[in-house]
Structure formats: C-alpha cells, structure tokens
C-alpha cells in the first residue's frame, strides 16, 4: 500500500453486494461502469485515486489499474451499512499511511467526478485549516434530514439542540470531504468515533452518514468549513461548471 500512496490523493469506497437504501437496490459486484466517470476524471487531470472495494474481480482490477488508479480490497463488516463502513476504512488507512500523504479528498464514487485539480486552487491553498465539503440547495432542517437523523437524534444527547441551533444553515454533503492531512486525519477520526459509538445498531431505513457529518461539522468546525461553488456544483444539477472542482450529480 505504501508504494501507491501519493502526497495528493482522491479516495473513494465502493461496497457492493449489500442492499443500498439510497438507491433501493443492490449494486452489482463487478460492474466497473459504476465508477468509470470518477476514474476517468482523475486520470484526465493527472491525479491519483484509490478505490477501496469488496467485490471487484482480480481481472477487473488488473484491467483498469494504472499510474492514476489503484484498487484496495477490504473485508466488509455488516455491522455497519456501506455508507458508514467507509469511514472505518478511511480511519484505518490514515492510521497507517498519513505520514505519506499531504492532501486528500474523500468522495462518493458513482455520482462524483473531478472537474479541476483542487490541490492547486488558490482557495484551497489559502485555507489550510478549513474543511472543504459538498453541499445541497437545502437547509439542514428539511423533511429528509429529519427522517435521516432519527436514529442519531435518539443516541446523541445534544443532537436535538444542534439541529435547533443550525436549522437554517445549508445542508452539507459528505460526498465530498477534503483538506490537508493535519486537518483531515483528526476529522475522520472524530467522524468514525461518532459512527462507532452511535450508529452500529441503526435499524432505520436511513444510513445516518449525513446526520453524523453535519453534526460534526456544525458543532466543531462551523467557522472552518468551505462548501458550495467553487468546491462543488449544485447538487443534482448535472451541470458541467468549469469553475468548480467537483461535480456531484
């Protein structure tokens, strides 16, 4: 693994064979088309990407691996849904290889593409203590998030107070998260700790990843978060905005 770790990385997780509550389906195990656009966008920009996966075949990995794309197989732990399990993977990864990494983004893989190299952008370089992330044209207090946060609301003592304090703030999206390693490593540690302590027994129809992410950012990084253009395009606009670093649907 150490040989494929670069100073600047874009990382994603692709867990299949498990029912996906967001898509209401089970993703096929060896379908590379689901990640093609993500992988292509990274290669075209000369960046380096890693996909953590549980079911790509050796043949598929060999066919698509390149100087710009590497595959790392992981053993899925069904105690956590795939959206949450990825933070365990990232936590373990950073624990082992943070010393080799300077800057990193974690993104969704099937609906995110990279439009510009974020690591050379002035906004990124001038804000080394901030968290960069995606967002949506919604406020935090919306019907979907109320349902999505049901489990965490019953587990985290101050969750209701946080929702009240930040109810009119923009809904942040964890499909794009990045910064230099000094900032992002403790952030991922905190995010995984929330899930480990509060989300392993989630029996609702919602994964809780958006709830935990917004809770952490708003309660601990509220003055240190940058989201929206130029970090990400408008969520679900399917727009090719040349000013933005990432397209999220």
What report would you give on this structure?
The protein is α/β, with parallel strands linked by helices and 249 residues long. The chain has one domain: Spore Coat Polysaccharide Biosynthesis Protein SpsA, Chain A. 33% of the residues lie in helices and 22% in strands. The chain has a 7-stranded mixed sheet. A two-stranded antiparallel sheet has the order 2-3. Helix 3 crosses helix 8 (181-198) and helix 8 packs across helix 9 (209-220). The radius of gyration is 17 Å and the shape is globular. The model has no long low-confidence stretch (mean pLDDT 95).
* Number of β-strand runs: 11
Q: What does the overall shape look like?
A: globular
Sequence of secondary-structure elements: EEEHEHEHEEHEHHHEHHEE
How much of the sequence lies in strands comes to 15-25%
Rounded to an integer in angstroms, the radius of gyration calculated over CA atoms is: 17 Å
Instruction: Report the biggest beta sheet as strand number plus sense, adding barrel if it closes.
Output: 7 strands, mixed
Alpha carbon gap, first and last residue: 30 Å
Second-tier CATH architecture: Alpha-Beta Complex
- Strand order, main sheet: write it out: 5-4-1-6-9-8-10
- Total of domains: 1
Determine the CATH superfamily.
Answer: Spore Coat Polysaccharide Biosynthesis Protein SpsA, Chain A
Low-pLDDT runs? none
């Amino acid at each position: 693994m150490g040989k494929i770790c670069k100073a600047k990385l874009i990382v994603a997780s692709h867990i299949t064979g498990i029912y996906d509550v967001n898509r209401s389906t089970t993703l096929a195990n060896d379908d590379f088309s689901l990640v093609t656009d993500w992988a292509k966008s990274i290669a075209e920009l000369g960046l380096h990407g890693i996909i953590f996966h549980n079911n790509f075949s050796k043949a598929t990995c060999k066919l698509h691996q390149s100087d710009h794309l590497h595959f790392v197989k992981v053993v899925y732990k069904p105690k956590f849904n795939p959206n949450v399990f990825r933070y365990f993977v990232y936590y373990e990864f950073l624990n082992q290889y943070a010393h080799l990494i300077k800057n990193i983004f974690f993104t969704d893989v099937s609906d995110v593409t990279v439009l510009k190299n974020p690591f050379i952008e002035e906004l990124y370089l001038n804000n080394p203590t901030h968290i960069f992330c995606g967002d949506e044209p919604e406020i935090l207090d919306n019907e979907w998030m109320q349902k999505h946060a049901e489990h965490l609301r019953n587990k985290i003592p101050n969750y209701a107070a946080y929702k009240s304090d930040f109810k009119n703030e923009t809904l942040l999206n964890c499909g794009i998260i990045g910064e230099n390693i000094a900032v992002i490593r403790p952030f991922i540690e905190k995010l995984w700790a929330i899930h480990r302590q509060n989300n392993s027994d989630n029996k609702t129809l919602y994964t809780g990843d958006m709830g935990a992410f917004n809770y952490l950012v708003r309660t601990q990084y509220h003055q240190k978060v940058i989201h929206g253009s130029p970090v990400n395009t408008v969520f679900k606009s399917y727009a090719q905005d040349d000013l933005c670093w990432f397209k999220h649907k």
